[in-house]
Structure formats: structure tokens, C-alpha cells
Write the C-alpha cells for this entry.
Amino acid sequence: MPISHVFDTYAKTSKGRTMHFNVALDEPDQQKALHYAKEWLKTIGHEDAAVSPENCYFFHSIEAPAEIRQQINDQGYAIYKLEGCPK
């Protein structure tokens, strides 16, 4: 199974709420992780949320669980919600 690279990410909404999530992808590429974080934020209606390279940083590499692996295969990345994210 391929190794996934996880980026610990924080975004701040225009209303001051902080969302903490991980972006998992197949390449250890911070720019791609940042792009995917912004893409995901748009899909949940938070296109105004601020996320920067300082708040999206490489965390670790791991063999992703099946559900995360499927998301990466389907869309190129997966989001693992941690704190302050909508359900």
C-alpha cells in the first residue's frame, strides 16, 4: 500500500472560528496540500477562511487507512477533520 503524507492544517474563518484538520496526499508537497485545503474549504462553504503555508505544514508519513486511501484515490487528497470542522 502506498505511503500518504499528512499536513497538519489550521484555517481561520472570517467569523474567527478555527478549524483544525489534516490534509493527506501521495506527495510530500506543501503547495499541493495548501491548494487542497483551500479547495476543501470552498466545498464546505468557507472559501473566505484563511490558511497559509505557516498553518499547513508537513506532519508525518503513514500508510493511510482504507477510507482515507479511497478518498486520495478518488480526488487526489483526503481531509481528516480534527477540531472545529463541520460534521
Residues 19 and 85 are 5 Å apart (CA to CA). Residues 3-83 form a domain with the NE1680-like fold fold (CATH 3.10.510.10).
